[in-house]
Amino acid sequence: MRRGPTDSLLLRSRLSERLEARERAYSLRVLIGLAFALSLCLLLTRLPWYPKPRPIGWQLVEEDRRLALLATQLEARAREDAGVPITRFAPPEPEEKKEGRDTSELKALQLRRRLEPPARLLAREVIFENPEQPPQIIGGLGAYYIHIEYPEEAIRAGIEGRLVLRFVVETDGRPSNIRVIQPLHPLLDSAAVAALRRVRFIPGKQNGQPVRVRMQLPVRFRLLSSPVQANNDNGSGR
């Protein structure tokens, strides 16, 4: 059976399609191979590279006793062969030991300094009785009496008199450790202590440095009955 020109054209088109499909498949394989090769090269370049260690031969490590014994044997042989006395020199002291001594001495000195407090700290801890410059109330004694609030109950009961406070003026001028050593009445004692806590002092000094000072302060509570008596007792108290 003969084929017409249409069949031959159809056959040629099919053959050309097959060839094109093979070429495309080949090109795709080539591209895949190139991509794989490139990725492998990138992977190899990013891997850490460790140089091959150099071959190490044997190492001789001897103990000190064996070295000392060997040196003694060599000296004995040298004496027997030459008959000349050999003078042994003591090896120099290693620097590490010297540094160790210096370090231990430095640590001992630092520990001694820690145990011995500075003079300033001692001055802050010691409480003076009669320093070179005694403390003074800022504003004078009148500033202290201004802070005293005479209790109403004591006024109605007619309670008056004198009490004595003992306290410590700190280096910042603040009164502390306030005690009533000569009490008068609980109401008046509390009023005197509360007023003292409100005032501030010019701190006392010893050798030009502020120090803690123990002080006593007599406080008088008096009820004023007339203006004449108030003028006579001005500044003595309330």
TrEMBL record:
What highest taxon heads this organism's lineage? Bacteria
Note whether Membrane occurs among the keywords: yes
- Membrane topology qualifier: Single-pass membrane protein
Q: What is this protein called?
A: TonB family protein
To which protein family does this belong?
A: Belongs to the TonB family.
- UniProt KW keywords: Cell inner membrane, Cell membrane, Membrane, Protein transport, Transmembrane, Transmembrane helix, Transport
GO terms, biological process: protein transport; transmembrane transport
> What PANTHER family is this protein classified in?
PROTEIN TONB, PROTEIN TONB-RELATED
Any transmembrane segments, and where? 26-45
TonB C-terminal domain location is 135-230
Output the InterPro entries linked to this UniProt entry. TonB-dependent_transducer, TonB/TolA_C, TonB_C
One Gene Ontology term, aspect cellular component: plasma membrane protein complex
Localization per Swiss-Prot or TrEMBL: Cell inner membrane
Q: Which Pfam families match?
A: TonB_C
Q: What is a GO molecular function of this protein?
A: energy transducer activity
Where it mainly occurs, coarsely classed, is membrane
